Amino acid sequence: MNKIKIGIFPGSFDPITVGHEYIIHKAAEMVESLIIGIGDNSNKRHHFNIEKREEWVKKTFENYPNISVKKYSGLTIEFAKKENSKFIFRGLRSTIDFEYEKQIAETNSFMDENIETVFLLANKKYGMISSSIVRQIFINNGNIDPFTPKAIHIT
Question: Between 40 and which of 66, 73, 78, 148 could a Cys-Cys bridge form, CB atoms 3.0 to 4.6 Å apart?
Answer without folding.
Answer: 73
